[in-house]
Queue: 2 jobs
Job 1
Amino acid sequence: MKISYNWLKETLGFDLSPQELAAGLAAAGFPVESIAPLAPEITGVVVAELLEVKAHPNADRLSLTKVSDGAAIYDVVCGAHNIAQGDKVPLAKIGAVLPGNFKIKKSKIRGEVSEGMLCSADELQLDLVQDSDGILQLPKNAEIGRDINAYLALDDLILDVELTANRGDLLSLRGLTTEIGAFLGKPFSLEGPKEPETVDWGFPVSIETDSCSFYTGRLIKGVQVGPSPLWLQLRLLACGMRPVNNIVDIANLVMLEWGQPLHTFDADKLPGHEITVRQARAGETMITLDNKERQLEPSMMLITSGGRPVTIAGVMGSLDSEVDANTTNIFLESAVFDASLRLTAKALGISSEAGSRFEKGVDPAVTAIASQRAANLIRELAGGEIGAITSAGTDRTAAWSIPVSIAKINGLLGADIPREQAVSFLSNLGLKVEGEGDSLMVHVPGRRQDLLSWQDIAEEVGRLYGFDQIPVSLPKGALTLGMRKKSQSLEWQVRELLAGCGLHEVMPYSFISPEMAEKSWEESGVEISNPLTREASIMRSSMLPSLLETVAYNLAHGQDSVAIFEVGNVFRPEPDSPLPSQVLRVAGALVGREPRHWQQPVVSYDFFALKGVVQQLLLGLGIEAEIRQEPHRQLHPGRCAAAFAGNICLGHFGQVHPAIVAEWKLDAEIWVFDLDFLALAQNTRQIVQFIPPSRYPAIRRDLALETNEDIAAGTLMAIIREAGGELLEEVECFDVYTGGNLEPGGKSLAFSLSFRHPERTLQDKEVQGLVDKIIGSLEEGGARLRS
Amino acid sequence: MEEKLKALKEQALPAISAAGDLTELEEIRLSVLGKKGQLTNVLRQMGSLPPEERPLMGKLANEVRDALEAALAERRRDLVREEQRQKLAQEKVDVTLPGRRPPRGTIHPLSHVRRRIEDIFLGMGYTIEEGPEIETDYYNFVALNLPKHHPARDMQDTFYIDEETVLRTHTSPVQVRTMEKMRPAPLKMICPGKVYRKDDDATHSPMFLQVEGLVIDKGITLADLKGTLLLFAQQMFGPEQEIRLRPSFFPFTEPSAEVDILCTACGGQGCRMCGETGWLEILGAGMVHPQVLKMSGYDPAEVSGFAFGMGIDRVAMLVYGITDIRHLYQNDLRTLKQFQGGLS
Ligand SMILES: [Zn+2]
């Protein structure tokens, strides 16, 4: 909320500097976002009186004037026509500096000397409304010779105070002065207006909706619409509002003073001699002030007259009931609408000062006061006769009382605030406090609709006491165990292991674009109904699009190799459940080559680099897994596998299908793995069953086998293990060879076998027997010993 | 004979020290002390001496032998040392060439910071809780005292899946779920995780990481909240840290506060980063609203609690001096590779 510093200062009579005031407001919970000057810097401009105005001898459009600042008389050439002898005007004397660093010098204009310049509002950069274009007309009683800054209070500052959503009461001078007064220890209450003399013309109002609790109106006849006096215009400017005309300006000023939004109609344009507040009917329309035809919904509250809508209540008036320059009779509305108008304003895309106040709650106790204050000002500044107020509904607020004890307050704050101090804090805020001893009864006025529970009262005491005065302690409950759950520890272990394999952890957005999903051959994800952009509109259903995007980004930014991993959630629609499914995945990608080393040839990432990472991860987690050829729709059919722990698939890995890579317009072999974190966590071996190392020597045998290329190494290993039995301690495949002098379609594999007995030394004969058995089984399996 | 022994010693000693390598030294040893060597030759003449001179001569001969053997040993030691020195000199490598190490990746800066924050609260006896990122409107808003159409919902611009389903705007729904599970037992938890808000600029990312904390027990006070957050700030940002609580408003806490720490750039002197105030806002906190306690099955007359929440991104930006949040989600390897090592 923007508010004039001078207005606060005059009203409360404090001597705080703007910075001190801002610091105090911040400590109370309302930081001041900015302190801006009302007007740009102006020097050397004073109030002057026009002594003489005559035509310029050499130019029709110019006048020669003599002006006085009380000390001297100056000859000034002027181009404006709205000046006459006796006017009080701003004179920029020689040496004056106007906004935009415009310096005034002595000059000759068409042969006549000019010792300064008479200023318009524009030249002073003031956004004022005037009768005519030209020189700014100051009031006739303005004291000549006074500096214009001092006279117009242009040195005022606009404070932009950041209010919290619960404190609608602070959207007014009344609320802010009460709050600041309480913090200064000087309770303050804004004084109400005098009761106006009224005429009873009768103008029935009625309410036919629950969303309006109180409606008042009054006719004011014979007003003259025109610009507001300068003081009013400047005050509005100092509160960040633009002046319009006296009627609108008065309504705005009173809203700023009391927090009660007002609306004015041209009474002669109202279709009937009555007002009814009701919900809109299906099919009704209205053209609003901004000249747009609005479709009205039954959820919207209307002010109607003669059966026709004249305002969307609290949101915007109709074009054809607006006060204009020719209006003479007005109908002044002051009413309480409930927060439902927030949805109306949102639906119509209209935000207004009035709307934001109704949303946060208006105090019905000031509805009539604001009407009176506005009526008085209208009579004073626009003339006219004031009609009696007519009303419907009630201004009675359900005033409530909150019982609380000092012990409870101190118990919640952890402080030791004495009773007297707590009570004086609350009374300074304008709350009535009763009660004996430790118990208090706090009576909450209608303006503090945020105070509902004793905890709210404790907060008020704490705020005024100062949060920085509250001591520091730690919770005193029973000792608790602070430890990660197993899966939480594993998550970090996964990160360490993968970083140890040379992969860098990434954290892409969970949302992807429909295009990313499509070119990754994704199944349907969960769609966001109001995405920020189309690029981020689907919650991903797998890790692949994110990995591919990260790879593409880094290849496009000069990396020749990418090795990344991510631990993150993927989402799938779940028709029979309130929420989509959420599955934590561990995924990664390798592209390019391994880091180069001067001792070694360059090694490109391939299936076995990828498998190595997966194996390293599984080993590190203590998972015994079997790697099997296993197709996956997004992977290369010949270069993909899955890891199994028993029957449970832990996830897939392999080369991204080249057709997908082509859709991404990339030219690289991309190797990815995508594992199910929960499956990993459920299959880790935490406890190792220790076997003492054998004291007896091992016997080693190498086998060189020749076989058909279609037979997998893993199959042969399984045969060897099976036939070797318990005494076969280790099998290692140490060479693979194709081509050369082998038959086409054949390959050669070399295995190293190690046999050991736990309790005695093995005999050569026994080992030979086992080797023969293994060779026999291998032959059945399609492999033979190389000669 | 005495002359001969002396002469032998005089001759042999310079020859021994002049020996250039071990082979030459061995030749000298054989020619002097060997079975057919010069000393043996001289001793053969012992028989021709009168018996009374023999012991004296024998003693002299032993002295010569000892002296020669000592000289031989010393020279051998020197030669061995020299030979080794030369061999080692030839084996020298350029230690500045890169080592053959397994490749080393990195853990994301946000993970480093998240882990550090977790560790601090684990040390204070908190558990870590998790929950869904796509949440029901009830858990994300209603159960936190934010009924439908509450104006404070505007404080968090929300992504919707449908009327009743949202991308969680904070990790508070995890708190509600945990409260429902644990009631009426005391509770001490943090919930880190991804959250989503419709915001995108240098300091706001539409997805970001948050950690919230919640303690519920008998007699929990605002002073306890202050003490806990002070301890956290000092562990995270340094032992000199101070915190400042400013009153604020959140629908789920009462009282509510914004919490500042001393500016990490200027230490409280005031600088451009902190807008000359000396303070930086890092989290929101407060005493759990009685309505929130009630909705999750706790009796506000029996227990009270505090809650706090902060952006892990915000902490990471301060710790690492990152000024644009988007660097954290760009996944540029040139950025990520900088984060070797941990945070402790
Ligand atoms: Zn600073």
Job 2
Amino acid sequence: MHDTQLPTLKAKDFSSDQDIRWCPGCGDYAILKAVQKTLPNLDKAKEDYVFVSGIGCAARFPYYMNTYGLHSIHGRAPAFATGIKLANPELDVWLVSGDGDLLSIGGNHTMHTMRRNVDINILLLNNRIYGLTKGQYSPTSEFGKKTKSTPLGSPDYPVNPLIWSIGAGCTFVARCIDIDVKHIEQLMTRAAAHRGTSFVEIYQDCNIFNHQTWFYASQKDGKKTNTLLLEHGKPMIFGEDSEKGLRMNGTKLEVIELGNGVTESDVLLHDETDRGLAFMLSQLLYPDFPEPLGVIYCSDEQDTYDNVVHKQIRQAIEERGVGDLEKLINEGDTWVVEDD
Amino acid sequence: MTTTTDTNHARIDATPLDAVAIRFCGDSGDGMQLTGGLFTNTSALFGNDIATFPDFPAEIRAPRGTTFGVSGFQVQFANTDIYTPGDSVNALVAMNPAGFKTNIADVEPGGIVIVNEDEFNKINFKKCGYQEGYNPLDDDELNRRYQIFKVPMSRLTRESLVDSTMGTKDIDRCRNMYALGIVCWLYDRPLEPTIRFLDNFFGKEKQKPEVAKANIGALKSGFYFGETAELFPVRYQVAKAKLKPGKYRKISGNEATALGFVTAAAKANKQLVYASYPITPASDVLHTLARLKQFGVTTFQAEDEIGAVCAAIGASYAGSFGMTGTSGPGLALKGEAIGLAVMLELPLVIINVQRAGPSTGLPTKTEQADLLFALYGRPSECPCIVVAPRSPSDCFEMAYEAFRLAVRHMCPVIFLSDGYIANGAEPWLLPDLAAIKPIEINHPTEPNGPDGTFLPYKRDPETLARPWAIPGIAGLEHRVGGLEKDASTGNVSYDPENHDKMIRTRAAKILKAADTIPPLEVRGPVSGEALLLGWGGTYGTITTAGDELREKGHSVSTAHLRYLNPMPKNLGEVLGNFKTIIVPEINLGQLVKLIRCEFLIDAIGINEVRGQPFRIDTLVRKTLEIMNR
Ligand SMILES: Cc1ncc(C[n+]2csc(CCOP(=O)(O)OP(=O)(O)O)c2C)c(N)n1
Ligand code: SF4
Ligand SMILES: [Mg+2]
């Protein structure tokens, strides 16, 4: 579409003139910053980006981006994004929304968009709470969580966004944390390069209604023990002093301590193309296991939905020629009434 | 392959008739819709005017032989202009006792009834609830009232296909063609169009030449049976109709709808994106468009109704023409997204093929009860343009209009079709494509505000539409969304005055559409005692009732609204010229409410909500009752 040289852009070129209305200390700020820093390094013209969102605090995202943006309705952003790609597959669509938006009211659309492998990028800003409606539990809230709507604790078991997306057939699944801007940039770059639905779950702190929910994974003390930074082809090692690793025991993953004859070579290597492994990794939950961060799964074996649809259009034109209206309305049996 | 049979000659003993209404009925597995459709085709090609009424159950294959599994197809063919499939049936073909039982009351006294005698047995009598020991074919009363012809169609079909390699079950499925053959003989219709269809459909498309051969065999045997059995004392003929000269084809409302939108898109040089979720009676629009990818049409079967409308809006946002289609229950689901489209001010068409509700209601039956819902069924002040085609072929024209208005005013347009016209068919005088005006669309490429800014809500003073700027154009990057917009900058605004202004502007924009919609036409004198005012699929019945009343000397005219929001500018003037305004509707009085409240006149409704089209005689009788009050 753009054969001329792309102008050099800076992060601030991607920031709109609108006042940001998130609460001070909200994790969304860091994510916005990371996104604005990443885009200038990607190989796309600014006018070809479209940011789409649903409703929620996270969903205000498009207003703060100086790109094309569509702030839609609660839960339906994946469907709008699909429509945009059907109309113009050249556009680079980024969907940014919350856990309630994408996994509760919009769960159906999220799942079907992933299974179709629509070529869009989804950033799930997961704060495990309904922020905009002031603090009810969300589908990712822990069992037993006390909130305004669950004074005796949440009776729901939470959804695991990674298992959800891998189960739905998503072809790129990753996870990171709001405060690690560099890591967000890395994963965004990978997501952008992936053809098909890319899904990045970002642990996001809601400073007001669910502060510290991710602290076990984000703070200095504990983060190295409680998370596992994945790298394709590398052994899955974690811990304060990289003293632990993951290994297969029968059909399950287990944590092993390195040393005493146990070496790096005993540790399982990460293979981001292995869907079975991705499933197993997704099920690792704090506090029993480290929670994996990075690219959990990436497969480029499947064609994208947009591609398949537009291929069919080309095929129809090849087989039947470009549509001729005159022929179309004359289709089937016709008869002539003569003037008399 | 063309097979010639000696069926085109006019028989000297054929009695001429002006119009005939035939109904084919039987089990939903008996192929009655196909049979009726083929007879319609033949009559249309022969040059008659036609109108059809397919009436089928919601279950695909209800238990055989039961009354609720009966499927019927009525077609009227005539040598003059007709607008309805006819009030009463002149000839009934009943493939089983259940069909006979549920349809016999609609046959005119003295009417022809042809039955498949072989199915009239104890077991089937029981299945459809006839008393034990009773055989309707032996009922003296019924035999006095109707001319009942008993034909052992099952046996004759089998005998005529003894050489076929197919099994008995498949052979039995050719009975409908045997029945069609008899009817073709009786009404002097050629077999060629049906033979051609069977050859193409079974022989070529389905690659089952033996099925094609058997069906053709049964069809011919039925025809020869009529000729040789001397069962029928006379044969009938309906001469060609004097329709407006030109080239015609038969078309159903749903087909015409699809073609209309494809034509409009071509005239606007736009790609169509049709996103939908299957629902009776709207699915055929999706099926038709799915075959037209070579016209740049993209169809998307979404995960649900909401996904469909949202994808359509996304497509419009990105510069295609987004459309969605559904029926009542689906329209209910789309409401929130339609509200967003009103706010985003993007073009969108929502086809609503109305069916009988509420809820699942009678999903295969017709109704006109979504008018107020289309107008007002969304939270807040959320106006849409609403149009309603009045007949199967009119769907083509109104589709073009819906498209034109949606892009002219950058707003959603609801297209209110209904099950009756969607499935019904009539001859369509093919339009002169060159004469259809192009639809002009301008996507901005340059900033329109001070200092090179882009103001996405800066309006065209004539249409009040905002610019349709699409992603991919450098310098026009902007954000739209469901939050209220500042009237000048388009940024989010919570200002009370601004909100009031925007609410009024959105309403005024919809009213602006009246500037380019044609004035309401009156059929009959433009002033008088009574005006029958209708909308949507009741056009045929109301028009025929009005014509009949005038012929009998009553001062009655008719008018039919195709634009319901906004309504034509001359409506008030038209209404003012009649003493009584009568509004027949297949609902409990929706348009009549609007007329009463908008024009402060004592308009009176005629209302029936039976899942069936009106009968002409009902409208005639009720109109006279109202006029004589
Ligand atoms: C149809 C509809 N139902 C409910 C709401 C109210 N609502 C707005 S945001 C929201 C939850 C948002 O939670 P989440 O997606 O997690 O976003 P967050 O605010 O936490 O970023 C709800 C219930 C709405 N706007 N629309
Ligand atoms: S409520 Fe929570 S999620 Fe919403 S802006 Fe405030 S801190 Fe962020
Ligand atoms: Mg949330």
